Amino acid sequence: MIQHHTFDFLKELVENNNREWFQANKERYDAARENVIEFTAELIKLMHKIDPGIDAGLDSKKCVMRIYRDIRFSKNKTPYKNNFGVSIPTRGLKLGGAEYYLHITPDSSFIAGGYWMPEAGHLKSIRQEIDYNGHDLKKIIDEPEFIKLFGKFREQDQLKSVPRDYSTDNENIDLLKLKSFIAQHYLTNKELIKENSAETVAAICSRIYPLNVFLNNAIA
């Protein structure tokens, strides 16, 4: 489970996002990061049973993203993220493709899956799969429980124009215009600090799994 002290650290970081405070609280950061690493290790074991594409031996440390922000090209010069991000890939760390992503931050945590902003080659392949087998994707995203958990899949960011090689009267044009293919569900602090919180997150991911299979099959 995610410990109270992890959320407490992140809450205070929002109010004190500077190097002096961070260095003075480095031990608290290390403890919070270790908590997230341990939680991720537990989640990976559960997720492997749901999605065989996830390596059961995946190093949880490599899944937890850096808290340090790249501020070189950003107007926001605060040096640290106010969250812990966890990326669990389904095709290995360097292959790209569908993944599961856990975002831990006070009062705005969420679990997501799918493929965010696919590279050009993968996007072309996904669109081709939608064109050929859009009914398979619709069966996943229009399932009542999927909509209840993740909302309306089609309401993600779309192209303003029709993508090249497709026409406006294509029956799947609303899906073909998508820039990303993401399912996202918000989690409360209370859900994450429970003893069985990893099981709760894994159960939600089990509903994302068919979407990830569809996307990975498209780019295989």
Strand order of the largest sheet: 1-2-3-4
User: What is the strand content?
Assistant: 5-15%
Q: What coarse outline follows from CA principal-axis ratios?
A: globular
Which value, in Å, is the CA radius of gyration? 19 Å
Assembly level: single chain
**Order of helical and strand elements:** HHHHEEEHHHEHH
Q: Summed up, what is this model?
A:
This protein is an alpha+beta fold. The chain has one domain (4-219).
What's the structural blueprint in terms of helices and strands?
Blueprint: H1 4-15, H2 19-24, H3 26-50, H4 60-63, E1 84-89, E2 99-104, E3 109-115, H5 120-141, H6 144-150, H7 173-176, E4 181-187, H8 189-192, H9 197-219
Antiparallel strand pairs: 1-2, 2-3, 3-4
Helix pairs in contact: 1-3, 3-9, 5-9
Structure description:
The chain has 220 residues and is α+β, with helices and mostly antiparallel strands. The chain has one domain (4-219). The protein has nine helices and four strands. The chain has helices at 4-15, 19-24, 26-50, 60-63, 120-141, 144-150, 173-176, 189-192, 197-219; strands at residues 84-89, 99-104, 109-115, 181-187. Strand 2 (99-104) and strand 3 (109-115) form a beta hairpin. Helix 3 (26-50) crosses helix 9 (197-219). The longest helix has 25 residues, at 26-50. The radius of gyration is 19 Å and the shape is globular.
